[in-house]
Amino acid sequence: MIKIVFATNNAHKLSEVRAVLGGDYEIVTLREVGITEDIPETGATLDENASLKARYVYERTGLDCFADDTGLEVEALNGAPGVHSARYATDGHDFKANNRKLLRELEGVTNRRARFRTVISLIRDGEEQQVEGIVSGVIATEESGSEGFGYDPLFIPDGHTVTFAEMSAEEKNAISHRGRAVAELVKLLR
Ligand code: ITT
């Protein structure tokens, strides 16, 4: 099986991506290649951060690798939290606090349009390529569901009546930003 490092510290992302790629690729974790520190995400855009994470791993290991940077872009908030999605409410990755803050910011706001965008940077044989995946939808007025992670309990994708957190992993992967970006990644890898 072909080995490829996924430059993430997010266990949810890892399991979503493994569910799609796991049959054909051995997805190697950061820990398995000896990277235990947080990779700095100092870019101003998702594209820059995806690239920073992938390059960090490539420079230290020389191995083929990819990284995912994802943001929730809310229309009425001019695209926020966007690249700051992980640290929207606090310095850490506090999903509960982030969701509370998002609901507060959208209190009384009727335009609840939003989209998730994932950018994946792939480095193969030292060559970098990027793909993206987008899903549009709306931000609910309260949290529902316990599947998934992050903003999933608040995001209802277009054409559906339930949040990502009320869907199975397979249902989410079939239509999500990450599922779509990984489908593009598969085309590059073939
Ligand atoms: P790595 O950088 O280690 O991959 P991370 O969690 O820091 O993990 P991001 O920088 O891409 O990942 O952060 C994006 C944040 O957006 C993440 O912490 C979640 O709060 C949220 N997020 C990302 N993907 C999501 C998804 O599929 N559903 C809901 N929220 C998501």
Could you walk me through the main structural features you see in this protein, from its secondary elements to its overall organization?
With 190 residues, this protein is α/β, with parallel strands linked by helices. It has a single domain, classed as Alpha-Beta Complex (Maf protein). Helix content is 31%, strand content 25%. The protein contains five helices and six strands. A six-stranded mixed sheet has the order 2-1-3-4-5-6. Strand 1, helix 1 and strand 2 form a beta-alpha-beta unit. Helix 1 packs across helix 5. The model has no long low-confidence stretch (mean pLDDT 97). It binds inosine 5'-triphosphate. Inosine 5'-triphosphate (ITT) binds next to strand 3 and helix 3.
What is the class in the CATH system?
Alpha Beta
Ligands bound to this protein structure: inosine 5'-triphosphate
Strand adjacency order, main sheet: 2-1-3-4-5-6
Shape-level CATH architecture = Alpha-Beta Complex
Q: What characterizes the major β-sheet?
A: 6 strands, mixed
> What is the terminal separation in angstroms?
13 Å
Number of domains in the coordinates? 1
Query: How would you describe the oligomerization state of the chains in this entry?
Result: single chain
Structural class, from secondary structure content? alpha/beta
Strand portion, in percent? 15-25%
CATH topology: Maf protein
How many strands? 6
- Can you count the helices? 5
User: Rg to the nearest angstrom?
Assistant: 16 Å
Helix content: 25-40%
On the 0-100 scale, what is the average pLDDT? 97
Low-confidence stretches are none
Order of helices and strands: EHEHEHEEEHH
Silhouette: globular
